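> forwarded from #structure-qc
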């Protein structure tokens, strides 16, 4: 279908102006004020983490990676949980972190202060997918059927939970208006903090007809055969083999409406002006990490990391994100941390 026209000039400014320090207040309480670059060589390497799922202890999940990096580099690694996608890049911008686990959507506006160290992979694959889902008793069979309905999405800067689904809606012919900066015209879209909450909003609220989440948060509750017609998902998604796995344990069954094109997995980013020798050691250790380094055999299944390696990458690997920002007429600095 023909894409709905968007407004604006599609020029992206840098991230620096709007974020300043106001939205960083929540993270500053954890990290302390920025030190203006006056780090000592033996200070801990601050690694900021942003959870995509509500029901996770991300510090616990990253502890094996922390221990691996410390053993490989001799550095002390400090893991710090952020509260949002924006906060992870603000931490780099204001010298409150050296490394950040973050979303691809922060890259278009962070050229002046953040570098890509590598791209996360899962079971050998650097690609993942967004899904739009509903419940089996729903009358929603395609994206077209969402006209006039309410749909739940993830955090405003979530690549697979919000921005990729917004493009899916637009490409299907729905007028999404100013979303995610404002309201959509052909349907109501409400956002949540993370993928798990988005999914549960739809399950528990009869007024919410559909939800958008990364496949990692939906596939375990979708019968595997529903993905079989999506060849790229079958070939590239780490979630395909696990599809439907939670149904036998009594999880609520979900119905697949649509699957996105392949998306590049999230980057590990570093502060550009972090010029200590340990930076190269950390990057090399990340790229050399094996699955058993990140998910040791003795780790409780509840605390397993959701990716299995990091491969070499740079900003050119995320051109799709830049194109998506252009298509949606977005600038990273327009997003406010809530």
């Amino acid at each position: 279908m023909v894409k709905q026209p968007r407004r604006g000039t599609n020029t992206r400014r840098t991230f620096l102006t709007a974020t300043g320090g106001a939205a960083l207040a929540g993270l500053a309480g954890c990290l302390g004020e920025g030190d203006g670059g006056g780090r000592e060589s033996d200070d801990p390497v601050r690694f900021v983490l942003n959870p995509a799922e509500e029901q996770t202890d991300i510090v616990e999940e990253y502890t094996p990676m922390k221990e691996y990096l410390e053993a490989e580099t001799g550095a002390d690694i400090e893991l710090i949980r952020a509260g949002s996608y924006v906060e992870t890049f603000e931490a780099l911008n204001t010298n409150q972190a050296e490394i950040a686990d973050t979303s691809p959507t922060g890259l278009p506006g962070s050229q002046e202060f953040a570098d890509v160290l590598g791209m996360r992979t899962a079971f050998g694959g650097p690609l993942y997918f967004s899904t739009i889902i509903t419940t089996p008793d729903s009358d929603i069979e395609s994206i077209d059927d969402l006209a006039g309905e309410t749909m739940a999405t993830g955090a405003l800067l979530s690549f697979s939970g919000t921005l990729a689904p917004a493009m899916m809606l637009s490409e299907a012919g729905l007028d999404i208006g100013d979303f995610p900066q404002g309201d959509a015209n052909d349907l109501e879209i409400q956002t949540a903090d993370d993928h798990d909450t988005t999914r549960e909003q739809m399950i528990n609220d009869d007024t919410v007809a559909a939800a958008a989440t990364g496949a990692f948060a939906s596939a375990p509750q979708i019968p595997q055969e529903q993905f079989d017609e999506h060849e790229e998902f079958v070939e590239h998604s780490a979630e395909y083999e696990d599809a439907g796995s939670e149904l036998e344990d009594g999880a609520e069954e979900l119905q697949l409406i649509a699957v996105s094109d392949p998306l590049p997995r999230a980057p590990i980013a570093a502060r550009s002006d972090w010029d200590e020798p340990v930076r190269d050691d950390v990057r090399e250790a990340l790229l050399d990490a094996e699955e058993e380094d990140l998910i040791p055999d003795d780790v409780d299944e509840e605390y397993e990391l959701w990716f299995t390696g990091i491969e070499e990458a740079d900003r050119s690997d995320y051109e799709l994100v830049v194109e998506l920002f252009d298509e949606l007429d977005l600038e990273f600095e327009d997003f406010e941390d809530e």
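QC bot note: The chain has eleven helices and 13 strands. The first helix runs from residue 16 to 19.
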